[in-house]
Specification:
about 25% helix; single chain
């Protein structure tokens, strides 16, 4: 009983120490009581919080939601969402009996991050990042959509509108086919339930991994969605597939109207071993990522970034590693500690959002520090 109570409480939201690249581990704290009889006599709110002198505890919580995709055919017409938020545990009966924890109103309104998964990559593998961003005071949405995105191929998909990738349509509409449904559901979540009235739906950030990162950065334009204000992606590029009718090694432009952060890993075997799709052989695993930054973004506002991480592979962004689905067999082994890689990526993504969405001056300073002083895991860091 003692362990269960102490593990449920989190005294403070975790914040990174930017001078240390290693992931800071959260430590369980022992309850000051020494016996089970004494614990049994303490009210629930106090048993959760008395070592913090009666204050309620901040804890990242999540709830599930299901929503229908308009015009999608069953059984592939349902998206299952998981919504992470900063909670405040008052020790109420509702919390104890139903596991419903209210949001921390003091941190509201919350900007919203939507994370798009890679093909056949379980969204639970991005929970590590969802929790880290929620601890910074954001609401984060992951989702699962099983659909037939390609003819005859059923997969867990981020939602890709293939028609919008064709040469005559690219850039005229978003490629993220799940996004309109997710935005509509966020409006409903903001009207009722735990997060009612607490979401800042004019500050939505799109992010993702692999194909999910691609649709995130391609769809982040105020011309498509006025509420979207920034985007980031890992293991992502805009190389154009030969099967769509493009010339070999073509890099497609991004909307280039909002802040964007591109991250790549020097050991990305999935990108390196998929170059044939684009009619070429990439010089390095990060070549299409770098070219997307160089050719797909004009820059000039100093809010577009490229970070290449030494030793990170394609699935360094997905934790814990799952070799049963996706294209993990194409990947190269990572050559740096992956907890440190994730720590660096979460820190950089968090600072990027804090700086360019939440306008925190300290975040700008820390991003400049990373850019100017380097980091042992950063091969290169550019801004334009």
């Amino acid at each position: 009983m003692l362990t269960l109570i102490s593990d449920r409480c989190t005294l403070k939201s975790h914040r990174y120490n930017s001078s240390k690249p290693s992931l800071v581990k959260k430590q369980s704290q022992s309850h000051p009581s020494t016996g089970s009889l004494r614990i049994a006599k303490i009210p629930l709110a106090q048993s959760l919080c008395d070592f913090d002198r009666g204050e309620v505890q901040i804890k990242i919580r999540a709830f599930y939601q299901a929503t229908k995709v308009e015009n999608a055919q069953p059984p592939y017409d349902t998206i299952q969402m998981k919504v992470f938020y900063p909670g405040k545990m008052p020790g109420s009966e509702q919390e104890q009996n139903r596991g419903i924890v209210p949001a921390d109103k003091q941190q509201a309104p919350f900007p919203v991050v939507i994370l798009f998964n890679g093909f056949n990559t379980n969204p639970e593998l991005y929970k590590w990042l969802a929790v880290e961003l929620a601890e910074r005071g954001m609401v984060v949405v992951t989702f699962a959509w099983v659909a037939e995105n390609f003819p005859g191929v059923v997969a867990l998909t981020p939602g890709v509108d293939l028609a919008m990738l064709a040469p005559d349509t690219y850039g005229t509409a978003p490629t993220a086919s799940a996004l309109p449904t997710l935005l509509t559901e966020l409006e409903r979540i903001n009207s009722e339930g735990i997060l009612a009235g607490m979401l800042d739906l004019q500050k939505i950030i799109l992010g993702g991994h692999s194909a999910g990162g691609r649709v995130a950065i391609e769809s982040s334009s105020p011309n498509f969605f006025p509420e979207v204000v920034a985007a980031f992606g890992y293991g992502v590029h805009t190389a154009a597939g030969r099967m769509m009718g493009y010339e070999a090694a073509t890099i497609l432009p991004l909307p280039d109207l909002l802040p964007v952060l591109l991250i790549g890993g020097t050991r990305d075997g999935v990108i390196a071993n998929s170059s044939h799709r684009y009619g070429t052989v990439w010089e390095e695993a990060t070549t299409p990522v770098s070219r997307t930054f160089q050719e797909g973004i004009s820059g000039g506002r100093n809010d577009s970034y490229l970070m290449l991480v030494e030793g990170a592979n394609h699935f360094s962004f997905a934790y814990p590693f799952d070799p049963t689905t996706g294209t993990s067999f194409l990947d190269f082994p990572a050559t740096q500690p992956e907890d440190e890689i994730r720590s660096l990526m979460a820190e950089t993504i968090g600072l990027f959002i804090d700086a360019h969405v939440r306008q925190k001056s300290t975040a700008f300073d820390k991003l400049k520090e990373i850019l100017n002083n380097g980091h042992p895991l950063i091969k290169s860091f550019e801004r334009k």
